[in-house]
Amino acid sequence: MADKKATTANETTDISKPQVTGWRKFLLDFGPLLVFFLAFRAGDVFVATGAFMIAIVAAAIYSKIKLGHVSAMHKFTFVVVMVLGGLTLYLQDETFVKMKLTIVNSFFALAILIGLLRGQLYIKMIMEMAFELPDSAWRVLSRNYAIFFAAMAIVNELIWRTQTTEFWVNFKTFGYMAINFLFILGHMPMLMKHMPEETPDEPTEENTDRN
Asked: How far apart are CA 105 and CA 184, in angstroms?
């Protein structure tokens, strides 16, 4: 009983935190990827890795200043980028930075699956500010996200191991964004189906008296 109360309290705390939306969220999520791409075009994968690390730090600072916190997903991504990016630059081996998407997506897939097994809907905790859905819909969305992240980890492994670095950079920047967009777009019918309908305002006593 105490565990359930603690879980509910944690979910409420996470949901009540300020959330970034619109173009600011796009920049926080995908801005560092665009920096990586531009730096790669201007230099090489090692220049791009350094620029990517700086962009990730900048995104974390912006989130902390504007929102007062850094999300758990961004914290984990930050740590992975710093570790693998540092190894890439120190050892001059691009393998590490190429494995970043694999590790991050695998972790997200595993975390969501474990959450489902424990009856915890982590996707709901992250996205409830944007959508009001029944738990049954959140479970479907969580399952699909787990499959999506696992698939993206596999795709990244196949691409960086079989294609050129330039091809992988293009996939990491534009392919990854496009697939994310299509995944979200594909779920819009389900999200809209469960969105609460707007009800007309009930007449007040004052309006009734006037009539």
From this structure: 16
- CA geometry: angle at 163 spanning 31 and 99, to 5°? 55
How long a stretch of residues is the chain?
Answer: 211
Distance CA 38, CA 174 (A): 12
Question: Residue 107 has which token pair?
Answer: 């972790």
Instruction: Tell me the Cα Rg of the chain.
Output: 21
Both structure tokens of 197 = 């309908």
Q: Are 45 and 96 in contact (CB under 8 A)?
A: no
pLDDT tens figures, 41-52: 999 999 999 999
Q: What is the pLDDT of residue 128?
A: 60
What residue spans define the domains of the chain?
2-195
CA distance linking residue 206 with residue 78, whole number of Å = 56
Amino acid identity for residue 85 in this structure: G
- Give CA 142 to chain center in angstroms: 13
CA distance 44 to 183: 30
Q: Is the dihedral of CA 10, 11, 16, 20 positive or negative?
A: positive
**Distances from the Cα of 203 to the Cα of 69, 142, 197, 206, angstroms:** 42, 40, 18, 8
